[in-house]
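queue> holo job accepted (arginine)
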Amino acid sequence: MSEKTKDLASQLTAQGVDVVARLSIPANIVVQRTDRPDLGDFQTNAALAAAKQMGRKPQEIAADLAAAWPTDIAEKPSIAGPGFLNFRIADAALSARTQAIADDPRAGASTVESPRRVIVDYGGPNVAKGMHVGHLRASIIGESLKRIFRFRGDTVWGDAHFGDWGFQMGLMIISLEDELGGLDDRKKLDARLASLTLEDLEANYPAAAAKAREDEAFRDRARKATAALQSGEPTHRLIWKAMREVSMQAQKRDFAALGVDFDLWKGEADVDPLITPMVEELKRKNLVEIDEGALIMRIAREGDKRELPPLLVVSSEGSAMYGTTDLATVLERARDLAPDLYLYVVDQRQADHFEQVFRAADRAGYARREALEHIGFGTMNGADGKPFKTRAGGVLKLNDLIGMAEEKARARLRDADIGSDFSPEEFEDVAHKVAIAALKFADLSNFRSTSYVFDLDRFMSFEGKTGPYLLYAAVRIKSILRKAEEQDADAGPVEVSHASERALALALDGFDAALAQAYEKRAPHFLAEHAFTLAQTFSGFYTHCPILQAGFEATRASRLTLAAATLRQLESSLQLLGIATPERM
Ligand code: ARG
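queue> job finished
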C-alpha cells in the first residue's frame, strides 16, 4: 500500500512509532481522530500511557514527543490537559491526501492484506411461507456485508439457503392431500400442481401450521410425510418440487425488487445426499448417541453459562432436522468452496441453534469453531415494541411492504415538487429508489443488534438521518457537476484552506476506517454513519464555500474536485449499503 492510500491516522501513527523508537519511550502509540475538534484534528494519549512505566511526568514526555515529531503531515503538536498530544493537519498534507482520494477509483478505500474466502448465508426464505418482514433485516444486512467483504478484496459467495426441507414441507404435502381427498389420482394431482400459486401456499400454510399445533393426529401425519419426502417417496418429491419452484420464482422477484442478489440459490434439500453418509460417519466416529429413539450429538461444554441442549441429528421418525441440514451444509461448503470464514446473517433469536451447529461442525472436523460466525440482529418492531405485524395482526409480506414504501415515496416526491417534469418511467424509477433507500438506510443506520421501530414517515423524510436525505445529497452533487460541465468549468488540483473545505477533506479521509470497522465488526452501520457524516459535511461546505461562483479559478477547480470526490465516495458507500442512487430527483 502506498503512503498516499493510507489515511491520516495511519500516517501519523507510523510517524509516532518512529518517534517513540528514536526517544526510547515504551509506548504502543496510536494516533486517532479527536472528539475535541476545537483542539485539533487528531490526538494521542501515548504520553499518559508511557508515564507510569517510565516514572516520569506525562507532560514532560508529551513535550519530548512534540519536539521530536516531524512537521510535514501535521503542524507541531500541542499539549493539552494531563499530557494529550493534539495534531492539526497542515493544509498541504490535507490537500495531498484529498487529491489521492480524488484520483483513486476506490475513493480512498484500501483492501485487506490477505484476502479470504467467505460465504455469507443470508436471506433464508422458506418454501410455502412466503417472504415476510422477518426476512427483511437478514436480506438487507446480509447483502451489505457481502458487498463490503467483496469490496475489501475477499472472494465472497452469498447463499440464500432456502428453507425447503423441514417439517413445513410435510405439512404442506398433507394439506394438499386433504384438499384433493388423497394423492392417488395422478391426473388430478398433476392438474392441481400445474395451477399452484404462491397465494395458495401462503393461504394454506398458516392454517396447516395452526391445525398441527392442536391436532396431534394431523401433526403425526405431517411428520410421517416429512420422513417420506426425505426418503425419496416419488409423489411427495413431485409435490415438493412444484411447491419449491413456485415459491422460489416469487421470492426471486421480491429479492430483486429489494436490490438483493445471491450467487448461490441453494437450499436445505441440496444437502440431502450428504446426510446419510454424514450420519454414518458420525456414528463411526462415536460422535452421536441414541436418545429416546433419536440420534443426537452432545455439544455442551464445561463452563457454559447455560445448558445447551444436544443437536438433534435424526428425529425418532427418521427425519433430518433444521440442525442436520445446517451441519451437512457446512460439510458441503467446506468441500466445494473451502471458505476461511462462514457468516450466518440470521435473527438473534436463532443464536442457540447456531451455537449447536457450530460446535457440532467443529467436533465433526468440518470447520473450526472460530471460522463460523452467527451475525445476529434485533427485530424491526411495531409502535407497540413487539416484532412488526400488520394492523390485522398478520405478518406483513415483503412485497406489500415495498409497495407501501413506494406509495409513500411517490407522495413525498410530489409534495417536494420533485419529478413533475420526469417521464412516468423515470418518476417510478426514482420513487422505487427512494423507497428502497428509506427502508434499507433505516435498518442499517442502527447497529445490527439494536431493534428499531418501523416508522415509514420518519424513514421517508428528506431531512435527518434517512436514505432519502442521502440520495438527495448525492443527486445535488450530480447536478452541480452537470452545471460545471455546461459552463466548461474544469476540476483542478485540490487546495484546501477554508474551515469547511478542511472539514470535508477530513470527512473524506474517514472512509477507509469506517469501511474497515464495518468489515471487522460485521456491521454496515459504521459505513452508514460515514455516509451520513459525509453528506452533512458536504452540505456545510456547500453553504460556506461557493463552487461555481468561487472568485478564483483555482479555488473553483479545487472545489469541483472536492465535490466529485465526495460524490464518488458517497455513491460507493451507498452502493455498499445496497442502495442505488438516481441520476436526478
Ligand atoms: N429459513 C430460516 C428461517 O426462516 C433461516 C435460514 C438461515 N440460515 C441457515 N443456514 N440456517 O428461519
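queue> The chain is about 55% helix and 10% strand.
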